[in-house]
């Protein structure tokens, strides 16, 4: 029973570690070493695009917005949310509601019913505005939040609107998540599928060592036969 529970816990750890590793690696590759998250929207109408403070001022880092027109000029401006709402009134607009991290897209919805105003740029309530024929880029700092960003083009729908946020900590967190997930994956695999120990190889047969006797047998005293040196020149000694 303990072995089954151990393997079940190991399998769950392995799956969780694999998911965390995949997510960490995916975010690290998408953000890059600079930690830049970039979201894009391609409007289908020529109505102004509005980015409210719920999206524009959601993070502490600076936000870089780039608008690319299909043709003609593009106009972009920042204002206090209440002032922007007063200028736009009930006119039609495309409102950015959030971001889709899976596809790196800005989510939008259509709102309003009246015709868009042609004199947005003449109002004197905009804190910052810019207009140009090519792409227009505006950096939104969070010091004056909350703010609303309004973008419109005079040659039809915008080709694209890019919303970028850079935070190097995101890349570091993604790498750490991938490493932690890899560690959990290895632990789970070891718990779920433990390595079987191989039996030790049998060695050559070794004869047993005989045991030493408790006591040695008594030694028999050796007898020595006396002998004499004889002088061969003495006949009496030779006769003995």
Features:
240 residues; six-stranded mixed beta sheet; 5 helices
Largest sheet: 6 strands, mixed
| Number of strand segments | 10
Helical content (DSSP H or I, runs of 4+): 25-40%
Shape: rod-shaped
State the secondary-structure class. Answer: alpha+beta
The end-to-end distance, rounded to whole angstroms, is 101 Å
The share of residues in extended strands comes to 25-35%
Order of helices and strands: HEEHEEHEEEEEEHH
Widest sheet, order of strands: 6-5-2-9-4-7
Mean pLDDT value: 81
Rg from C-alpha positions? Answer: 46 Å
Return residue spans where pLDDT drops below 50 for at least 5 consecutive residues. none
Q: How many alpha or pi helices?
A: 5
Compact description:
With 240 residues, the chain is α+β, with helices and mostly antiparallel strands.
Walk me through this protein's architecture.
The protein is α+β, with helices and mostly antiparallel strands. 30% of the residues lie in helices and 26% in strands. The protein contains 5 helices and 10 strands; from the N terminus they run H-E-E-H-E-E-H-E-E-E-E-E-E-H-H. It has helices at 2-31, 53-56, 81-88, 168-192, 235-239; strands at 36-41, 49-51, 63-69, 74-79, 93-100, 105-111, 128-132, 136-140, 148-153, 158-166. The strands form 2 sheets. The protein has a 6-stranded mixed β-sheet. Strands 1-10-3-8 form a 4-stranded antiparallel β-sheet. A hairpin with a 4-residue loop joins strand 5 and strand 6 (105-111). The N and C termini lie far apart (101 Å). The mean pLDDT is 81.
């Amino acid at each position: 029973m303990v072995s089954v529970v151990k393997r079940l816990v190991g399998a769950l750890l392995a799956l969780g570690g694999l998911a965390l590793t995949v997510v960490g690696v995916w975010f690290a590759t998408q953000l890059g070493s600079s930690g830049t998250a970039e979201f894009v929207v391609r409007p289908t109408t020529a109505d102004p695009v509005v980015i409210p403070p719920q999206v524009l001022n959601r993070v502490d880092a600076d936000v870089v917005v780039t608008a690319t027109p299909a043709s003609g000029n593009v106009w972009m401006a920042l204002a206090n949310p209440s002032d922007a709402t007063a200028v736009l009134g009930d006119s039609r607009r495309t409102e950015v509601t959030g971001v889709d991290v899976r596809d790196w897209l800005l989510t939008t919805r259509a709102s309003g019913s009246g015709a868009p105003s042609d004199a947005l740029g003449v109002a004197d309530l905009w804190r910052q505005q810019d207009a140009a024929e090519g792409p227009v880029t505006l950096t939104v700092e969070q010091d004056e939040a909350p703010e609303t960003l309004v973008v419109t083009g005079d040659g039809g729908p915008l080709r694209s609107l890019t919303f970028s946020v850079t935070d190097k900590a995101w890349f570091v967190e993604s790498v750490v998540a991938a490493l932690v997930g890899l560690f959990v994956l290895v632990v789970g695999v070891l718990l779920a599928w433990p390595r079987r120990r191989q039996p030790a190889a049998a060695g050559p047969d070794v004869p047993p060592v005989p045991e030493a006797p408790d006591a040695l047998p008594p030694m028999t005293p050796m007898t020595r036969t006396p002998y004499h040196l004889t002088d061969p020149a003495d006949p009496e000694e030779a006769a003995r």
